[in-house]
Amino acid sequence: MNIAYFPGCSLHAISSEYDSSTRIVCGTLGVHLDEVDDWNCCGATAGHSMDHELTMRLNARNLAQVARMNRDSVVTPCPGCFNRLKNTAIGLTTLPGERKKKEASMEGMHGEPPKVMSLLQFLTQEIGLDRIAGPVKMPLNGLKLVAYYGCLTTRPAKVAEFDDPEQPVSMDRILEVLGAKTASWSHKAECCGGPFAASDTDIVLDLSGEVLEAAQSAGAEALVVACPMCQLNLDSRQGAIRNHQGLEADLPIIYFTQLIALAYGFSARRAGLKRLLVDPLPILRRKGLA
Questions:
Q1: Side-chain-side CA neighbours of residue 198 (13 Å)
Q2: Is 269 exposed, middle or buried (0-12, 13-18, 19+ CB in 10 A)?
Q3: CATH code that applies to domain 136-286
Q4: Cβ neighbours of residue 200 under 8 Å, at least 6 residues apart?
Q5: Other residues' Cβ atoms within 10 Å of the Cβ of residue 112
Q6: How many C-beta atoms surround the C-beta of residue 131 within 10 A?
């Protein structure tokens, strides 16, 4: 299977371990990720809040690039990129005026824009749990996790069109077929404060602190994410959260693709686990997984 792949800025930089583990997982499953030619930044939350029209044009161009590759769908691991690409695809489909205004950005795209899927959606719906379970060589037995979806993976529901917006289960199901145990908890779809990462870090510390505290209360040994911004906030700010609100947090924040790669028999190094700030290796070693 070949599919267009939009990595986004984070996966080419600070979240390169998400990119590399995604490529390992998809390669193992027989999926070739064909990176979108000459893609540009999606604009993310910052661009959208400052200039909605510009962000729409940026993503109309990205979708046109996918169409030029003769692909009718595109997958992106980042929920922010997914949200912006999917919003644009919906606007181009349902609002003729939007499409006409963006024709200069859409050279090479005729008819419907490509289907936009998050990586989590693609693996769940297009690959399926049975195929994901097939290559497991080292089950994650004994590992107690919480799956954290954040605020964009499944919301807004009319944009994501995937999983339950308030109580999603898709990542939990993947982790469970790998052999891990997932806990029910209160904050799986709460915001980590990502949009305020630069403008008001106290908000980030408060919200991320609440997420970490809820994960600890659920008995989690690690928190599993599918979002670069969530991973960055929760992984890099635990010391600041400790100083800000006294929460003693020392919880590894791991991409779900890293755990799939580990279960498929790839080393902790190949899975990018050594790039994480809160070291997951002590816990994994205690479970005989590293």
A1: 3
A2: exposed
A3: 3.40.50.11810
A4: none
A5: 11
A6: 14
Q: Compute the Cα dihedral for 219, 224, 228, 232 and give only its sign.
A: positive
Place of tokens 């806990």: 183
Give the pTM: 0.95
Average pLDDT, the chain: 93
- CATH number for 2-122 (one of 1.10.1060.10, 3.40.47.10, 1.20.1050.140, 1.20.1260.110): it is 1.20.1050.140
Report the distance separating Cα 181 and Cα 62, nearest Å: 38
Chain segment 119-176, per-residue pLDDT in tens: 999 999 999 999 999 999 999 999 999 999 999 999 999 999 999 999 999 999 999 9
- The C-alpha torsion from 124 through 129 and 134 to 140, rounded to 10°, is 100
Q: Decide if 165 contacts 290 (C-beta within 8 A).
A: no
Spans of the chain, pLDDT less than 50? none
User: Can you give the residue ranges of every domain in the chain?
Assistant: 2-122, 136-286
